[in-house]
């Protein structure tokens, strides 16, 4: 283990995903973009909680948002994360409906 620095990015991504709400958000965004209002309804959480979790995911480069008028639609921005979440959830599809 001469070069521990190569483990920093994967560890950072795993740390960001290591929260049930954040993992659920990412899983729900794997195949489609979604806004905060729809996420909060599906997750049955306050808007502030969803926004806080999205901020953590954004800061780690896991999701990004695109503004459409007054709404921001989020999507998974990191292909490695998509693969990780699919493996963790056995390719189970989760969709915000």
Automatic annotation (TrEMBL):
Keywords of the record: DNA-binding, Transcription, Transcription regulation
Its gene is bigR
Regions that span the bilayer: none
Give the superkingdom in one word: Bacteria
The family database entries (InterPro entries) matched by this protein are listed as: ArsR-like_HTH, HTH_ArsR_DNA-bd_dom, Metal_resp_trans_reg, WH-like_DNA-bd_sf, WH_DNA-bd_sf
Is Transcription given among the entry's keywords?
A: yes
Q: Which organism is it from?
A: Sporotomaculum syntrophicum
Q: GO MF terms on file?
A: DNA binding; DNA-binding transcription factor activity
The name this protein carries in UniProt is: Biofilm growth-associated repressor
| Positions of the HTH arsR-type domain | 2-96
Q: Does the keyword Aminoacyl-tRNA synthetase apply?
A: no
